[in-house]
């Protein structure tokens, strides 16, 4: 009995010792868990978390290496997340029954891992670390995880190790979840950092490509960011952006004003000093604010625009050279016009005098042919001058109230004889709805009509040329229709180009320069209208001109009686200022033939002196280009001396700008060279009429 009780007491004492040992062990394990959790709380990365976990478990489980495997979904294999052995880094593991059991929460100790499917595919150099294996699994938010402990000797993991894992499961779960979270966070940070790095590099590449310099300043104008320490040849060695413009106070003040007003600005240009290459820069900027709307400073770009500036300067220089060349061309053409018109005046004047000298019929026909040739030469000169002025954009319209049928009648009168010689009927008709008076440039409308009708007569051998005036949609419409040779579709495409005719053979057969239609189109475009051509080869052509001319209402003017009916008017005493002996002869003969007294002055100074002598002249015909003193200066002097008798410019310089200049100095009119007899007689008649009425004061 005593022995039995003694045995019971011994068993009780032994259980008590075991219980105390378990309590001590649990206390140590709990203490280790708390220490591990504290260590993991202070960890900065997944490696520190993993090492903190292993540091706790190594006191209770004897292992050489450990690793954590994870997967994102049930179809994916397990991949290494963290390990203490570099040979297992980036390893991939298949999932079979053993890993599935561990993922479901079972702790498993393997005494011969070679018999387990998951380890059979490992290479031999890794199997030497896996002779003893202890593993368990946990569920994480992103998927599944398996914690594996390895030893190179067999039988190192007992059932007590499995109990320890079960006891430490909360710590294991927290550690693995933390490691997984930190891994994913690190991956995200790495990806974002890489994207940011790529974005920054892309930004730098773009900036380098476009040549921009990026900057940011605070509210005190100090740099908070610059993309490069240098700007072109200028080194940025100052803290304030305004110090860059120390050599250019005006630009600095402009920028400071924009900064103070928080106003964005674009492309403010400035030039670097000569010591830095004199390059050109352009700066742009915009203010930026925080979320609360507080002004933080400015951000912007600066560009090196030296190449662009040089290109612009080269373009400006080329444009100036082109303008100078165009001006020189105009001056040359004006000079050539004067030089050609002056001898042509003598030729045409002498022909006119010769025609009235009692010649025979055949000789008169020769004179007529000569006169036509001279008129053609004069037309060519006028066309070239007009085209030159139009192309140089120095051409202006001079609009006033006009009677459209006056232009039509003028063209018909001038071209009627040409049509009669060819046996072509020339008809003109106006629609009753056409306003009698309109606002436009009468001379240019007449010129367009003259070119179109002249061409129609030239290229029509039989039939008729018809002019029809109508109104369409508040526009004046002039239609010129002929029954001539017509124009092919190919030729119509380039017909309005200068010096172009429908066919080269036409030039030889019909003559002409090919300028008429080009000038007409320019004139019509200038007046805001358009020309429409319809033509059939061999049947004829129809040119339609639409002009946006406004209708006008005016009082009818009383016409001055024709000079032909006024044979009782007194003769004139005329002073002709002309330096060319030939033209002196021609003008004198033309005037004396009409019963007038003529004196000649070879230059402007002589004309002034002859007027001062008090010989009592009624009219002065004043050449413009003369030696000693030109006609402009002579007219100024005469007007300054109170001489009021009419002074008519006798010149080959007949451009509109020239005519305005003549009028400004006090001239009363213009008689162009070569002298047209009808124009001369009209001027003489007006002067005789004024003299008869007592309007002249010598």
TrEMBL record:
<protein>
    <recommendedName>
        <fullName>histidine kinase</fullName>
        <ecNumber>2.7.13.3</ecNumber>
    </recommendedName>
</protein>
<dbReference type="Pfam" id="PF00072">
    <property type="entry name" value="Response_reg"/>
</dbReference>
<keyword id="KW-0418">Kinase</keyword>
<dbReference type="InterPro" id="IPR005467">
    <property type="entry name" value="His_kinase_dom"/>
</dbReference>
<keyword id="KW-0067">ATP-binding</keyword>
<keyword id="KW-0597">Phosphoprotein</keyword>
<feature type="domain" description="PAC">
    <location>
        <begin position="266"/>
        <end position="317"/>
    </location>
</feature>
<dbReference type="InterPro" id="IPR011006">
    <property type="entry name" value="CheY-like_superfamily"/>
</dbReference>
<dbReference type="Pfam" id="PF02518">
    <property type="entry name" value="HATPase_c"/>
</dbReference>
<dbReference type="Pfam" id="PF00512">
    <property type="entry name" value="HisKA"/>
</dbReference>
<keyword id="KW-0808">Transferase</keyword>
<dbReference type="GO" id="GO:0005524">
    <property type="term" value="F:ATP binding"/>
</dbReference>
<feature type="domain" description="Response regulatory">
    <location>
        <begin position="573"/>
        <end position="688"/>
    </location>
</feature>
<dbReference type="InterPro" id="IPR003661">
    <property type="entry name" value="HisK_dim/P_dom"/>
</dbReference>
<keyword id="KW-0902">Two-component regulatory system</keyword>
<dbReference type="InterPro" id="IPR001789">
    <property type="entry name" value="Sig_transdc_resp-reg_receiver"/>
</dbReference>
<dbReference type="InterPro" id="IPR004358">
    <property type="entry name" value="Sig_transdc_His_kin-like_C"/>
</dbReference>
<feature type="domain" description="Histidine kinase">
    <location>
        <begin position="335"/>
        <end position="551"/>
    </location>
</feature>
<dbReference type="InterPro" id="IPR036097">
    <property type="entry name" value="HisK_dim/P_sf"/>
</dbReference>
<keyword id="KW-0547">Nucleotide-binding</keyword>
<dbReference type="InterPro" id="IPR003594">
    <property type="entry name" value="HATPase_dom"/>
</dbReference>
<feature type="coiled-coil region">
    <location>
        <begin position="308"/>
        <end position="335"/>
    </location>
</feature>
<feature type="modified residue" description="4-aspartylphosphate">
    <location>
        <position position="623"/>
    </location>
</feature>
<dbReference type="GO" id="GO:0000155">
    <property type="term" value="F:phosphorelay sensor kinase activity"/>
</dbReference>
<dbReference type="InterPro" id="IPR035965">
    <property type="entry name" value="PAS-like_dom_sf"/>
</dbReference>
<dbReference type="InterPro" id="IPR000700">
    <property type="entry name" value="PAS-assoc_C"/>
</dbReference>
<keyword id="KW-0175">Coiled coil</keyword>
<dbReference type="InterPro" id="IPR036890">
    <property type="entry name" value="HATPase_C_sf"/>
</dbReference>
């Amino acid at each position: 009995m005593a022995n039995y009780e003694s045995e019971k007491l011994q068993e009780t004492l032994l259980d008590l010792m075991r219980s105390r040992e378990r309590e001590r062990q649990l206390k140590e394990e709990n203490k280790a868990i708390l220490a591990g959790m504290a260590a993991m709380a202070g960890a900065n990365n997944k490696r520190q978390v993993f090492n903190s976990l292993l540091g706790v478990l190594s006191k209770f489980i004897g292992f050489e290496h450990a690793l954590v495997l994870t997967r994102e979904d049930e179809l994916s294999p397990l991949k290494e997340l963290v390990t203490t052995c570099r040979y297992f880094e980036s390893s991939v593991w298949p999932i079979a029954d053993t890993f599935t059991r561990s993922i479901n929460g079972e702790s498993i100790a393997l005494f011969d891992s070679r018999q387990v499917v998951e380890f059979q595919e490992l290479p031999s150099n890794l199997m030497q670390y896996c002779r003893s294996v202890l593993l368990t699994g946990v569920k994480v938010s992103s998927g599944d995880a398996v914690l594996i402990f390895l030893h190179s000797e067999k039988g190192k993991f007992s059932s007590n190790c499995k109990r320890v894992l079960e006891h430490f499961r909360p710590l294991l779960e927290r550690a693995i979840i933390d490691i997984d979270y930190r891994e994913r966070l690190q991956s995200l940070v790495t990806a974002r950092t890489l994207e940011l790095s790529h974005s920054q590099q892309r930004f730098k590449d773009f900036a380098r490509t476009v040549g921009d310099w990026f900057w940011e300043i605070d509210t005190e104008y100090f740099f908070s960011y610059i993309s490069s320490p240098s700007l072109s040849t200028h080194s940025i060695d100052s803290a304030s952006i305004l110090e860059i413009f120390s050599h250019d106070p005006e630009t600095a003040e402009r920028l400071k004003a924009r900064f103070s007003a928080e106003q964005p600005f674009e492309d403010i240009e400035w030039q670097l000093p000569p010591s830095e290459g004199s390059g050109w820069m352009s700066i742009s900027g915009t203010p930026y604010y925080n979320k609360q709307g507080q002004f933080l400073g400015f951000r912007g770009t600066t560009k090196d625009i030296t190449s662009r500036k040089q290109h612009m300067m080269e373009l400006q220089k080329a444009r100036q050279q082109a303008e100078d060349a165009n001006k020189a061309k105009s001056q040359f053409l004006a000079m050539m016009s004067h030089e050609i018109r002056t001898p042509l005046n003598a030729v045409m004047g002498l022909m006119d005098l010769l025609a009235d000298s009692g010649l025979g019929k055949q000789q008169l026909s020769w004179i007529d042919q000569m006169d036509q040739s001279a008129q053609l030469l004069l037309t060519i000169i006028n066309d070239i001058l007009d085209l030159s002025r139009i192309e140089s954009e120095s051409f202006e319209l001079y609009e006033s109230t006009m009677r459209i049928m006056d232009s039509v009648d003028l063209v018909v009168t001038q071209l009627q004889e040409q049509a009669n010689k060819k046996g072509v009927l020339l008809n003109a008709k106006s629609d009753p709805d056409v306003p009698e008076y309109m606002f436009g440039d009468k001379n240019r409308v007449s010129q367009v009509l003259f070119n179109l009708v002249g061409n129609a007569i030239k290229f029509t051998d039989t039939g008729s040329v018809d002019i029809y005036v109508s109104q369409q949609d508040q526009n004046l419409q002039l239609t010129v229709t002929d029954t001539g040779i017509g124009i092919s579709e190919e030729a119509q495409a380039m017909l309005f180009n200068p010096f172009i005719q429908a066919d080269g053979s036409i030039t030889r057969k019909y003559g002409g320069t090919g300028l008429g239609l080009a000038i007409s189109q320019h004139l019509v475009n200038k007046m805001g209208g358009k020309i429409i051509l319809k033509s059939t080869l061999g049947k004829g052509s129809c040119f339609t001109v639409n002009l946006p001319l406004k209708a006008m209402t005016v009082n009818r003017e009383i016409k001055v009686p024709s000079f032909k009916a006024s044979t009782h008017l007194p003769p004139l005493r005329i002073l002709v200022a002309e330096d060319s002996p030939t033209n002196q002869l021609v003008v004198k003969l033309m005037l004396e033939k009409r019963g007038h007294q003529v004196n000649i002055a070879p230059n402007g100074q002589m004309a002034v002196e002859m007027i001062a002598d008090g010989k009592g002249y009624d009219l002065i015909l004043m050449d413009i280009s003369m030696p000693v003193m030109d006609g402009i200066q002579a007219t100024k002097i005469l007007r300054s001396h109170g001489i009021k008798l009419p002074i008519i410019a006798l010149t080959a310089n007949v451009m509109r700008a020239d005519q305005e200049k003549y009028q400004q100095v006090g001239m009363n009119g213009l008689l162009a060279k070569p002298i047209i007899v009808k124009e001369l007689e009209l001027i003489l008649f007006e002067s005789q009429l004024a003299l008869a009425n007592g309007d002249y004061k010598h």
